TrEMBL record:
It is an enzyme of class 3 (hydrolase). It comes from the Bacteria. The keyword Hydrolase applies. The lineage of its organism: Bacteria, Pseudomonadati, Bacteroidota, Sphingobacteriia, Sphingobacteriales. Transmembrane segments: none annotated. Its EC number is 3.1.1.53. Pfam families: SASA. Keywords: Hydrolase. This is Sialate O-acetylesterase. GO terms for molecular function: sialate O-acetylesterase activity.
């Protein structure tokens, strides 16, 4: 095994492509059948025409955003005429030279279900409503199956007016035009609800119940992902360690591109200026200082009586892997160095007079070649034609040239933007009403840049989606890990502070405060239902323009008055309050020594006064500044929590 023979009915262009694929798969004996199947599929693809194709998101049960112009797009053969029919209207276009096409639908009112036709393709059960792009890390993609015991109503879900699409994971070093395959739209009927993620489900349910408008939840998230991976390279220029050396990448790809893949197997290719190589022989013995791919060409004469006859090609043993062509027709390949090369030359390939054997030989070690003591010949009707001796050769791909570029790309697996390229950029033509962002846990060990990252992400996505005022709903991290006996530093508190500052400084954003619904011993808290309610409350004010209080008390400024500090707030609603009705908790006061201690805090009108009996000259206050400030209880009378804050900048 290990030697591949294929029918002669395919031209040299397809055969060369198959041979290259064969090499790149680095075939082992046990994988031969898999490779043969792959090659057969490739042959089928090579001879079939490209039908109309739609993005994965344009599919049955999709939701389109209401009240905005919509883009329907896809791919087909260049120049193909496309008819899109939607709600009894036709939209005509044709593909460009690269096979892309698109039409624009006018803004639509909420409703459905509708049907979309694109030539012979029919997309059914389409709703028009509100589409939310949801992203972040594992808490955004917590599967709903984990919550069934806590919320048994999930099992009886029967809502076909809310839909869900999970974008498959796709890392990419460059922006992709399509999301990875495998995603599909699901509704929230009982038979499909287990496909959902938890937060998306509860938000969609509550939004539909409040607005009566169909909802589509487009979830593009990945557990454990850092925020940097969701920001484009253009926005990360101030963080050099996160940038990919594009010049090195392009140069490496050029160096690793096979220069001969399309032409050097053709009989008419002019190889008169190529150097010569003696077969058998090894590269280094003949001063060929290269590793990668070399092409070898040998011409021979064939008598007229042997023209068109079946033959057998013996090419000894080669190092490492080869693809062999006779007169431009692929006759066989071997994926590793050990087997003897014996390839059948089907009838109809050989011809009277000049013939050509071409070998594409790859050696990753840099000392490929033809093993001595073996036969190198063509046998036709018992007549042997000796192929040993002088061959022409040329370097098709020299991997040594790419070595220096690879050194410059050592950070390839640590650069930012890979999820932006693969899971956000492909959504640029999708219209959404807003974004829900739930992420930060993975950045809590190095929170110092998170505020800047989040501002860049918002700017970036607004540019990509062409919505300068695209609303962002930010989920502030909930409480997690054991509570501390004394005030202490906290990476989670600093992430919350960064999220708070962004919500205060960046227009069209809103923040939900959640340090009461986490779990100290589980980074994935189950109470996504209350979190969804808080997000919807924020959306009702920010997105839908309702007149209501959606935010808890927000720290504004402080005044030092003798041995106490008075804190002033905005968003006090009907007034400041204590959630449990007893005493305020989780306020810490620091004096001139910079050491924080738990302090007494009392509400005085719209302010909070903080004191400590041992601190006569206070300088700073912190509130809910901890990994797990679950007992912090400052709210307004609308029962909305105050966001954690600090008055210092230490």
């Amino acid at each position: 095994m290990g030697v591949l023979r294929l029918p002669s009915a395919y031209d040299g262009r397809h055969n060369a492509s198959v041979a290259i694929l064969f090499h790149r798969m680095k075939i082992k004996k046990g994988r031969f059948c898999v490779v043969l199947l792959s090659l057969a599929l490739l042959f089928c693809a090579g001879v079939s025409s490209a039908a109309i194709r739609l993005p994965a998101l344009i599919a049955d049960r999709m939701v389109l955003q209401r009240d905005t112009e919509l883009k329907i797009w896809g791919w087909a053969d260049p120049g193909e005429k496309i008819t899109v029919r939607f709600r009894d209207k036709n939209y005509l276009t044709e593909t460009d030279a690269t096979g892309n096409w698109a039409v624009r639908l006018p803004a639509q009112k909420a409703g459905g279900p509708y049907m979309l036709q694109v030539n012979e393709i029919t997309v059914r059960d389409i709703l028009i409503g509100d589409v939310w792009l949801c992203s972040g890390q594992s808490n955004m993609e917590t599967p709903i199956a984990r919550l069934v015991e806590r919320f048994p109503e999930i099992d009886a879900s029967n809502n076909h007016m809310i839909r869900y699409f999970k974008v498959p994971t796709q890392h990419a070093l460059e922006s992709r035009s399509e999301i990875s395959g495998g995603g599909r739209w699901c509704s929230a009927v009982a038979s499909e609800v287990m496909n959902w993620t938890a937060l998306a489900y509860f938000y969609a349910q509550q939004s539909y119940a409040h607005n009566g408008v169909p909802v589509g939840m487009l979830v593009s998230s990945l557990g454990g992902s850092t925020i940097e991976s969701w920001i484009s390279q253009a926005q990360l220029k101030e963080f050099p360690k996160l940038l990919l050396d594009r010049t090195a990448l392009d140069s490496m790809r050029l160096a690793e591109r096979d220069q001969g893949i399309n032409d050097w197997v053709k009989p008419e290719w002019d190889d008169s200026n190529w150097p010569t190589f003696t077969v058998p022989g090894l590269w280094r013995e003949q001063q060929v200082d290269s590793k990668g791919v070399l092409y070898f060409r040998k011409s021979f004469e064939l008598p007229a009586e042997l023209s068109g006859r079946y033959g057998m090609l013996y090419l000894g043993t080669m190092i490492d892997s080869d693809s062999v062509f006779v007169n431009g027709r692929f006759v066989g390949a071997t994926g590793y160095m050990y087997p003897p090369r014996k390839y059948a030359v089907p009838a109809g390939i050989l011809r009277k007079g000049s013939n050509l054997v071409t070998i594409r030989l790859r050696s990753n070690s840099g000392n490929g070649g033809f093993v001595a003591g073996k036969s190198y010949k063509l046998v036709v009707n018992d007549k042997e034609i000796n192929l040993a001796g002088q061959w022409k050769y040329q370097v098709g791909m020299d991997l040594a040239l790419s070595k220096s570029y690879r050194t410059r790309l050592k950070n390839k697996n640590e650069v930012g933007s890979t999820l932006y390229h693969g899971m956000i950029y492909p959504l640029k033509d999708v219209k959404v009403i807003g974004v829900i962002w739930y992420q930060g846990e993975a950045n809590s060990d190095a929170p110092q840049d998170y505020e800047r990252y989040l501002k860049l992400l918002i700017k970036d996505w607004r540019l990509a989606l062409n919505r300068p005022q695209l609303p962002f709903l930010l989920v502030q991290l909930p409480n997690y890990m054991p509570q501390q006996e004394r005030p202490s530093e906290s990476g989670w508190a600093r992430i919350r502070e960064a999220q708070f500052k962004v919500a205060q400084e960046v227009p069209y954003t809103a923040l939900t405060v959640n340090y009461d619904i986490g779990e100290w011993n589980d980074i994935h808290p189950l109470n996504k239902k209350d979190l969804a309610a808080r997000l919807l409350l924020a959306a009702r004010k920010l997105v839908y323009g309702e007149k209501l209080i959606s935010t808890g008390p927000t720290y504004q400024r402080m005044e030092i008055k003798g041995n106490k500090i008075e804190l002033f707030f905005t968003n006090v609603g009907s007034g400041l309050a204590i959630r449990d009705g007893k005493v305020l908790k989780h306020f810490a006061l620091a004096g001139q020594d910079g050491q924080f201690r738990w302090a007494k805090a009392v509400i005085s009108g719209h302010t909070v006064v903080v004191t400590h009996p041992d601190i006569t000259h206070p300088v700073a206050v912190r509130y809910a500044w901890a990994d797990n400030p679950a007992d912090a209880n400052l709210v307004n009378k609308e029962d909305l929590l105050a966001s954690p804050f600090r008055t210092d900048n230490w």
